[in-house]
Amino acid sequence: MSSDCFSHVWGPMNPDIIFYLPTPPALPAHWCAYDANAITQLVDLNGNHWRKIVTIMAKICCLEPDINIEKGIHWKLIRDQLFSQPNDTQTKDKHRDPARRLYCQLRIVNPNIDENKNQAFSSQCWHILCGKAVQHRMGIMDASQYIALDQQQKILHQQSVLLTPYLDYRQYSNALIELTRQQMPSHQ
């Protein structure tokens, strides 16, 4: 996929999951996704909407069998360092840190890319296309070749690509978060 498809890319170069969203947040001057307080700054500037987005992402990335155990301490640790890179000791086995997790990257999809051109998705990681706007921008106009994971057909998949609702609790409930987590082999 060409880099001109995305206005912003945050997270490790070799993520386990890539989330695709349609609109970037407002960012403070000199903001760095890898800083210890990056998520706090992002939420402080953008409010509850982006708090919900990063919370849903963290819950999906959490490898703990029950994300609600210990009052969600594990996914909260992940959320606070959502775009972190695995450090050198974790590179060998990136699933052994205290908050066991999948590492994610966030890509903001440009609105003016060629929607008629289907994008190629690497099978090396999961691709979560959040909402219809992103799916259309990425060239998915007809999802008939995708398989529904739920009866309401809110989450569809094909190989390593998941078509999901936008990352908001009104559309992406905890039940759908759990369904997404179950789809990824490393959660089983």
SS summary, helix count: 6
| Biggest beta-sheet profile | 7 strands, mixed
Distance between the termini: 29 Å
**Percent helix range:** 25-40%
Q: Based on CA inertia axes, which overall geometry fits?
A: globular
Uncertain residue ranges: 88-97
Radius of gyration: 16 Å
Strand order of the largest sheet: 1-3-2-4-7-6-5
As an assembly, this protein is: single chain
Keywords, please?
188 residues; alpha/beta; seven-stranded mixed β-sheet
Give a description of the structure:
This protein has 188 residues and is α/β, with parallel strands linked by helices. It is built from six helices and seven strands, in the order E-E-H-H-H-H-E-E-H-E-E-E-H. The protein has helices at residues 38-46, 48-61, 73-80, 88-91, 132-137, 174-183, and strands at 6-10, 17-21, 104-109, 126-130, 147-148, 156-158, 161-164. Strands 1-3-2-4-7-6-5 form a seven-stranded mixed sheet. A hairpin with a 2-residue loop joins strand 6 and strand 7. Helix 2 (48-61) packs across helix 3 and helix 2 (48-61) packs parallel to helix 6 (174-183). The chain starts with 5 loop residues before the first strand and ends in a 5-residue tail after the last helix.
Short description:
With 188 residues, this protein is of the alpha/beta class.
Helices and strands in order:
Elements: E1 6-10, E2 17-21, H1 38-46, H2 48-61, H3 73-80, H4 88-91, E3 104-109, E4 126-130, H5 132-137, E5 147-148, E6 156-158, E7 161-164, H6 174-183
Parallel strand pairs: 2-3, 2-4, 4-7
Antiparallel strand pairs: 1-3, 5-6, 6-7
Helix pairs in contact: 1-2, 2-3, 2-6
